[in-house]
Amino acid sequence: MVKAAKQMLQPEFQAVLQAMLKHMPHNKDYLVENVVKPFILSDDDYKKIMDVMLDSFNQGLGKETNAKAAVKMFPTYVRSVPDGTETGKVLALDLGGTNFRILLISLDGQEVNMESKIFLIPQAIMTGTGEQLFDHIAECIHKFMKDHDLLFHKIPLGFTFSFPCRQEGLNKAILTHWTKGFKCAGVEGHDIVQLLHEAIERRGDIDVNCLAVINDTVGALMSCAHEDRKCAVGLILGTGTNACYIETLENTELWDGDTDEPHQVMINTEWGALGNDGSLDFIMTDYDKQVDKHSINAGQQIYEKMISGMYMGEIARLVIEKLRKAKLLFNGKGSEELSERGRFYTKYVSEIESDGDDSSFKCTKQVFAELNLTKYTDEDCRIVQYVCSLVSTRAAYLASAGIATLLNKMNRPEVTIGVDGSLYRFHPHFHDLMEEKIRQLVKPGIKFKLMLSHDGSGKGAAIVTAVANRLALEKEQKLNAKNGIPNGE
Ligand code: ADP
Ligand code: MG
What we know:
With 489 residues, the protein is α/β, with parallel strands linked by helices. The protein is built from 17 helices and 13 strands. It has a six-stranded mixed β-sheet with strand order 1-11-10-9-12-13, sandwiched between helices. Strands 4-3-2-5-8 form a five-stranded mixed β-sheet, with helices on both faces. The longest helix has 33 residues, at 378-410. It binds adenosine-5'-diphosphate and magnesium ion. Residues 96-99, 238-239, 309-310, 345-347, 350, 421-423, 426-427 line the site of adenosine-5'-diphosphate.
């Protein structure tokens, strides 16, 4: 029709019509835009999310409101950042969701040496019994110690256990519930240090004592604070998402530890659970609802499921499938792989976006090949790239709203945020997107810096454990002196 109309017009009018058509929305683009629209949130939406967050944080901190709060704001027993004088040799465990690592760390002031090994946790163990899980962990510790000639040494151990725990002491942590694909029977409601010690005793061939349990957010904070004393927030963007920050004892109504200096404590927010009470329903898309429905913890970790590595690829896949079925992608023809739940990995999002303005779409085409997609146009590449960028941008902005809420709440003039996790580390734009959005959302005058934490889970556990070990030795020496026992015996 347009063609016929054009033919009827004089050449000068044809030129005008051409220019007009150029500025009209392309029909396909318009339809795609309609599908992805729910991922584009306004400034007002992000401000509203921050209000919801602050409200949830305060409910978690309040004595009367904590029991019902979605975000638990667990006080850790870590009270101060390192002073850089920490020393000693420590064994650290890092159980975070995707990998299990054991590390041997030597601290000597600013000098830190690490050796580490990754062990696999088989799927059957992730969803088996707690006894199987801790027996497996103890076996890995034995292997690691044997390989490092440590079998006949007594060595302090720090455990970075990155699941929601109610701590009753530095080495007493009760798992409230599993997240991130773990579901081992008989662990929820129990002290994970006790379960670990029991497994070690069952073997009877290693001598390790777990002195500290920390969350990976605390690990990220501590490891960055080791270099930068302004670090007061720890952020994880990996399999899951979570953050911790330094709160005053006055605001921590559930604090039951001692109240000597410093009058502060690190709070493990467990912010992934934001929205479990329905408070984020106003931004949830159909795709978020599907991801939640098919997860092993439906109705839980709502905020986490919109952001982190375990879910982001799947959100993108669902949108891509929706567009394909509407014949807006791949001419309607997909592949078995593309239709398989969980098969579009979050690393694909990073790879596709790393093509940037490169019109050859090198990485995107490689991902398509891995998904057995053979027939596609450059426009398909462009649309998939656009979908990925919208899903990851929303994730980065949502995490930014959380960080801005914490920065505004702490109200310190300058704060460094220690960040760990593969999503943040490897996504090509996450850092820049977050910097831009936090700047926009934070109170004027507050300065901040996002700092990548190197091996935070290991280094952080080592720092906390080394301090706990020193304090324990000092206490023992004092006690011995009081009882007239010479030290070292
Ligand atoms: P954990 O959080 O379990 O300690 P990681 O920090 O390594 O482990 O995060 C693992 C998560 O990171 C996985 O969900 C994975 O999908 C995601 N991931 C791995 N590589 C990339 C990448 N290149 N880009 C974005 N996400 C990634
Ligand atoms: Mg980790």
